[in-house]
Structure formats: C-alpha cells, structure tokens
Design brief:
The structure is a homodimer. In chain A, about 40% of the residues lie in helices and about 20% in strands. Chain A is an alpha/beta fold and about 375 residues long. Chain A has one domain: Rossmann fold. In chain A, the strands form 4 sheets. The first copy, chain A, has a 7-stranded parallel beta sheet, with helices on both faces. In chain A, strands 9-11-13 form a 3-stranded mixed beta sheet. A two-stranded antiparallel ribbon of chain A has the order 6-7. In chain A, helix 4 packs across helix 6, helix 6 (about 110-135) packs parallel to helix 7 (about 180-200) and helix 8 runs parallel beside helix 10 (about 300-310). The longest helix of chain A is centred in the N-terminal third of the chain and has 25 residues, at about 110-135. Chain A is globular and about 55 Å long. Chains A and B meet through helix 6, strand 6, strand 7 and helix 7 of A and helix 6, strand 6, strand 7 and helix 7 of B.
Chain lengths: ~375, ~375
C-alpha cells in the first residue's frame, strides 16, 4: 500500500508517517511548511524544535532502516500533486494539509482569507489530482467534530435520516461551526461529497476531536522524532496546554464557565484510527464519515484531572477562569456517537490519572522550554 | 436608502439598478467585468452587446435623470469595498458578484478553482467589509434553489426542525448540490450563517430558481438598457435558451428525459423580490432565507409551452432529447415552498402562453444575432 500524507510535518502527519512505515506501509509525504511559518509569525513555536523533513527522514532511516520520501511542495498545486501521485503510484491519500487553528482563522482578514483559500483549495486540488490520476484512489480527509457544533440532538456519525411531512431522506448531519476554521471543514465535506456523487470518488471523512499527547508509541527515542507539540493559544489543543501550564505554575486557562464538552482522543489512537480507515476503504462514490474521538470531557473535568495528576507529582496547580475569548455555547447538550472505530476494533487509550501522570512526566523533561507568554488567549471572537 | 449592487453589470444587476432608482433608492454599483471576460473566453457572448458601465449610466442619466454611480472594482478587495461602503454611506448590499454558471464551474480545474475563489472569496470580503464598516448593514445575498438539490422531502425556506431520538433542534435545511457552482453557494450560506451568529450580521439569503425574460418593465426603450441576456450553454438559463432555439429553427435541447423539475421566476419578479427583501430586513444576528421562484415546471413542460407559443407566431419548433451532460437526477420528488414572498405581497408574473408569445416576439427582434453554435452543451460532468 502506497500512502501519501499531505501535511507530513504536522502534529499528526509525522507521527503517522512513523506509525505507518513501522506497520509495513510505504509512506510518501508532502508539506509546504506553512505551519512553521505561521508559528513563527504568531510567536507560537512548538515545545520542541524539530528538524526539517529531509534531515528528519535521513535520521529516521538511520535509526530504523525505514525510508520516508518527502516533497517540499504545496498540495494546492494540482499538477505537482498529480505528478507525485503518479510517480509514487499512490493508492491512499491522507489529507492533513489544512490550517488547523480556530483562533488563527479568526485573527484578521488576511489569516481568515488564507484559511479559506488553503483549506478549501487544498481539498479541491486533492479531488482534481485524484480524478486525473486514479478516481479509485482512497482519500482520507481530516475533518473535525467541530463541524457539528453543539446541536440539541444526538450527534450521529456524519449522516442522519430526516422525516418531514410524511416523507424521509438521508442527509449529511446538520453542521454549524463556531469558527471560520471549522466552517472551512464543513465546506471541505460538502466539496468531497459532491465529487463522491458526481465523479465516483472514494472518501473517508474523519470527524476528529481535540488530540492530546506527546509520546508516539514505538517511535525511536530521539527528540528529532517528537511530534510538533503545541501548547500555545493558537495551535495548542486544550489538554496539551493545561499540562504545560500546570508544569510551569501558570493557572490553567479555562475559557468561560468550563462546561463546554467535547470528544477527545489520544494521538496514538488517532494514528490507529487512520490505519483502520485505510483498511476499510469505502466503495466507489461512497463517503464514509467516522467520528474520531474516544472519550467525552468537559473543560472543567479536564482541568480537574490535570490538577489531580499534578498533585501526584508534587505540583500544586490552580485554575484561572477567563472570559471566553471564543464564540461558543458553554452550557449545551452533547451526546456524540463514536461506535464506528470501536466496531472496527480500536482499543482506546484511556485518559485517566495513570496516563495523565505519565504524560506530565514526559512533558516535564521540556519544562524549561515552555514560554508562559504563549498560553494566554490573544485572539477573541 | 443607499443600496450597493455587487455585480451590477450582470443579468440581474443592471435591471435591478434601474428598477431601484425608479423606485427612489440611491443606487451604487460595482463590477469587475469578469462575466464579460468569461463570456469572451468561452465564446458565450450575450444576445445583445451592452455598453460598459460608464457609458450605460451616462446614457441612463440622459434618458431618466437618475444617476447610478459605478465602480470598476473587484469586491474581493476588502479595503476597496470598505472604502466604497463608507464613501457612499451604504446601508444595504445586494451581493450578486458571483460566477453564476454551473457548466463553467465544471469546465476544467482552472475554472473550478476560480469559481470557488471568486464566490466564497467575494462573500468573505463582503462579510469583512461590513463588519468593519457597519455590522448593521443589511447583506442580501443571491443564493440558488440548487443548494437544496432534489431531496425526497418537501423543501422548506432555508430552515428545518429536526426531531431525533426524542430531542429536536432547528437547522439549515439539508443541502446537496449538483455542480461545483451550486456547492460554492452552499459554502456562502454556511459562511454567512457563521458570521450572523458570531458577529451579529443581518443577512437575507435568496434561494433563487432559474430566471427568464428579456424585457424590464419600465426601463427606457433603448438597447443600451437591455439585460445581459444569455442563451448559450454556459450562462443561458433553460427558458431563455429554448426561446432562442425555437426562433432559429434549432430543436430545443432537453437534457436527459426532461422530467427535472425546478422553480422558475420572471426577471421582473426577481427584482421585486429583492426590493421586498430590502424592505423586510432581518434583525441583528438573524439570517432570513427566502425561496425566490414563482412556479414549478419540468423541463418537458417548459419545452412543450415554448413549442405551443412558437406555433402561435407561426414557428414550427421541435424538441431534441440529448443525453444529459449534467450530473443530476431526472426523476425525482420536488415540492418546494415559496410562501415567503407571496406573504410579503409579491404579485407573480405568470409564465403562460400569453407571456411566452410576447417574450418570443421581443426576442425575435434579435433573431439574427442568435449564434446556433452557442446552444449545444459543450461541458459534461
């Protein structure tokens, strides 16, 4: 199986490349380093500086004997992408090449415009390159649970049967997001679904919840292979941010009343979900949507768990409730399904005190690198 | 009331400018002439060549005494747009500045990419300029009935209450379109709805059916003021195309079995609907969606009506059933609501034999300009 990872330099992209090569896949990757550029421009650099791709893959080859071929390329360039698909005889694309920050998308007109152009543009490019290369090539696209928002009904996995005035039909599950970034993911889904129907494409759209974790199980023990771990207000997901705050004596920044509930997933489980998606490709013209999270938590619950784990390793952490910088409901119904991956055999890594303590110990190795200036919310909407 | 029309050079834009000035509105317009450029590039020029905006508005001033100020500008330029909003003290924007052709959006990668960038980009620019200028400025956006597609349930006006597992919520009506162009309109709606909720914008989204007609009631009798009437396969809506085909002895090009049903509207009714939308602005943070059509017809029914009207004026027209070049259902349920404008007092112009005969007589004045090469479908998807 020849897999192409778009966005291989990212938090999920690089760990996925290691994970899949170890499991026998031939992995090729593309990145345009936009994430690094944005991190520099917004003073949101990752916890651990990672080498550029060529250096990283050379080193990985030395450690493991596995080759990962990479291209520094913008996947919005359809002809370049098509050429890579053909040269590398790709049969599965993992599309992670999107601007992934909600705050960045809401920063200003330029960042918003970039987010639309990059995210919808990269998805359109992937679609067009696949149509030209081989319409049977499986596209696995990273969406977000945020596409659904927080509806007052149970969240199904992508689809819903609607009964209305005595008739019924099946539709994409209603989606209404709480940032421009999340809205571009809704657009991606609509675009992919149109080309599934009209061009017979095979698409898996993964509605992923916030991911956490620094350690990639099975990866060689060298800083060069660590994920692109962010704890800042722009790219940092909430649990990663809380852990870094606790380790440096900064009160945990809970936005609003902290009742916001989401589905979370361990980085290693996210990798396994993507492999399960590769192994369970949809048929021609089919779009499979899977909700990719393992446990539901409120922000308050996460904060409490971090406080408790911190105390176990001798840290007296505190919570600071900030006015919510985001446009989102705080008190809301939230019941989301995630049977899909469980049915495919996912063995979830549980977020519990044991994991959290170990997670904090791992991150604490890098405590001196944590910059307190990067954790407070700088963008409001 | 100071109204800004984005896309004032278009089939609806110019007639709307005349209609609104006659009714006492101060009208300002913007166009970047992209429609003219695309028409030239695709050999799809309109039936009657119309003057450029400055010449047209000068002439209109001479005929009527009404001034229409225009800017040759791209409304994707947020700062230019914002400056115009401020200079002209605009309180209502009619956003018609989109690439409106489904076939063109499916022509090739470049035209598809342009359609996404232009349509979603112009809507984003309007949103951002309004937020900076005055969030209370009413945005009236031209959507399309094609956003809904052809669902197996009744089509409501934009919203639907969904009951699911004993709970309920109200959502945007499910949408799945049958071209890239129509999909960009879905994206526009999602974008506008996000900024209604997060920035308190006031938006009317008009789900318009195919428009027909050449005559603008009340307009001065001069070719310079005729709408940008297209009968080609790229920009020509079906009834306008049928009329031109009948007049030049070309069999009416029915795509597929002709059972496709849509909601149609006379150009003059479309103008009146937009005025009714101006007069009934939503509140802050509210998005009103109105279905803008007056009558449902199948393509076969339209073709039969044109045949019958043609015979009344001594023309023996025929029908040619072509393999459907489009991705669309031919046999489908179609029951769409349009109470909204009727409730606001719209007096619909009926598409009947009398209207059709008069319409054909008007168009026949220009019969010699109809180029038979422009009517056959050139783009398939």
């Amino acid at each position: 199986m020849n897999v192409l990872i778009l966005g291989i330099d990212g938090y999920i992209g690089w760990p996925l490349a290691m994970f899949l090569t170890e499991r026998g896949y031939r992995v090729v990757g593309i990145d345009n380093y936009d994430r690094r550029r944005i991190a520099r421009e917004t003073d949101s650099e990752a916890l651990v500086e990672t080498p550029l791709l060529q250096e990283r893959t050379d080193k990985y080859l030395g450690f493991t004997g596995f080759e990962i071929k990479t291209y520094q390329e913008d996947c919005k360039n359809v002809s370049a992408l098509k050429k890579i698909l053909e040269t590398e005889a790709i049969d599965t694309i993992i599309h992670l090449a999107e601007q992934p920050s909600a705050p960045y998308s809401m920063k200003d007109i330029e960042s918003g415009s970039y987010t639309i152009a990059n995210n919808v543009g990269s998805t359109f490019s992937v679609i067009q390159a696949v149509i030209q290369h081989n319409p049977k090539c499986h596209i696995i696209k990273l969406g977000t649970m945020g596409e659904y928002g927080t509806p007052n009904i149970d969240i199904e996995e992508g689809w819903i049967d609607v009964n209305h005035n005595g008739r019924s039909d099946r539709f994409l599950f209603p989606r209404q997001a709480s940032s421009l970034y999340h809205t571009t993911k809704i657009m991606d889904t609509d675009l992919l679904w149109f080309y599934c129907r009209s061009a017979g494409l095979r698409v898996t759209d993964l509605m992923q919840g916030p991911v956490y974790g620094l350690e990639v199980y099975g990866a060689p023990n060298d800083h060069a292979f660590l994920p692109n771990f962010h704890y800042d207000d722009i790219f940092g997901t909430v649990l990663n941010r809380f852990v870094c705050q606790a380790l440096t004596g900064i009160p945990l920044t809970v936005y609003g009343n902290g009742s916001q509930t989401r589905g979370y997933i361990n980085l290693n489980d996210a990798l396994r979900c993507i492999e399960l998606s590769i192994l369970n490709a949809p048929g021609e013209g089919e779009m499979v949507i899977r909700n990719q999270f393992t446990q539901l938590f409120s922000v308050n619950k996460l904060a409490e768990m971090v406080l408790s784990a911190a105390s176990k390793i001798g840290i007296d952490a505190t919570i600071s409730q900030l006015p919510n910088p985001r446009f989102e409901k705080e008190d809301h119904y939230y019941h989301a399904k995630n049977d899909s991956f469980n049915d495919l055999g996912l063995q979830p890594t549980m977020l519990d005190q044991e994991f959290l303590t170990s997670f904090m110990n791992t991150v604490s190795t890098f405590s001196s690198r944590i910059d307190p200036k990067k954790v407070m919310p700088r963008i409001k909407w």
